[in-house]
Amino acid sequence: MRIIPIERAESSGRDTCSEDDGTVPKLDLPLARREFLKGSGVLMGTLAAGSVLASLAPSRVWALELTALSKSEGSTLMAMARVLYPHQKLPDAVYALLVKDLDAKAAGDAQAAALLREGVASLDRLAGGSFVKASAARRLDVVKSIEGMPFFKAVRGPCVTALYNNDMAFAVFGYPGSAWEKGGYITRGFQDLKWLPEPSREASPPPYMG
């Protein structure tokens, strides 16, 4: 079985989607055989058939190799991320990017690793056994109860960048990429959101070029 190893997206100056029609090219994700993933834990999942990412990725199966955290800890952090920033359209593969970032930090910082492990244990304890298996309402109550604590901040902070600054999220949300290299929006109009109705001519008149 072939899988897509989850990689952290690096920001770049190029657009990842077509400025003209909003289409997204095939994601350039390398393939690797399952047997080569030999970290301390491996998170795996499948992109839903018919979803945006399934149509763009070379494989529907994804995997994240962990070096410091366990599979159970990674799953719990991913579930916490969904409580913090719930998006039904975003697959677990995108939330796994947060786990990848936290795992990398834990691998190089013993204090960060201890904070994450203790935090995950507290989530399970407050949930009455397993945070991942708890109901959505219970998970929300648990996360609210630790708001403001160091562990909460350690997860919420990088969660924003991990979830929203990557090609997969751009494809799901329909974000066409930066317009900076295209001269901004003035020459192509402001209305390029495919899920909103076209504005009236009065609301979006042609640009004045004189």
Tell me what you see in this structure.
There is one protein chain. This protein is α+β, with helices and mostly antiparallel strands and 210 residues long. It has one domain (2-178). It is 40% helix and 9% strand. The protein is built from 7 helices and 4 strands; from the N terminus they run βββαβαααααα. The protein has helices at residues 52-56, 71-84, 92-108, 110-126, 136-145, 150-164, 167-173; strands at residues 2-5, 32-33, 41-46, 61-66. The chain has a 4-stranded mixed beta sheet. Helix 2 packs across helix 3 (92-108). The longest helix has 17 residues, at 92-108. The protein starts with a strand and ends in a 37-residue tail after the last helix.
Characterize this entry briefly:
With 210 residues, this protein is of the alpha+beta class. It has helices at 52-56, 71-84, 92-108, 110-126, 136-145, 150-164, 167-173; strands at 2-5, 32-33, 41-46, 61-66.
**How many discrete structural domains?**
1
What's the total helix number? 7
- How do the strands of the widest beta sheet line up side by side? 2-1-4-3
Based on secondary structure, the structural category is alpha+beta
Strand content: 5-15%
Helix and strand pattern: EEEHEHHHHHH
Query: How many E strands?
Result: 4
Radius of gyration: 20 Å
Quick one: overall form?
globular
Q: What's the pLDDT, averaged over the residues?
A: 76
Q: What share of the residues lie within helices?
A: 40-55%
Q: State the distance separating the first and last CA atoms.
A: 60 Å
Main sheet?
A: 4 strands, mixed
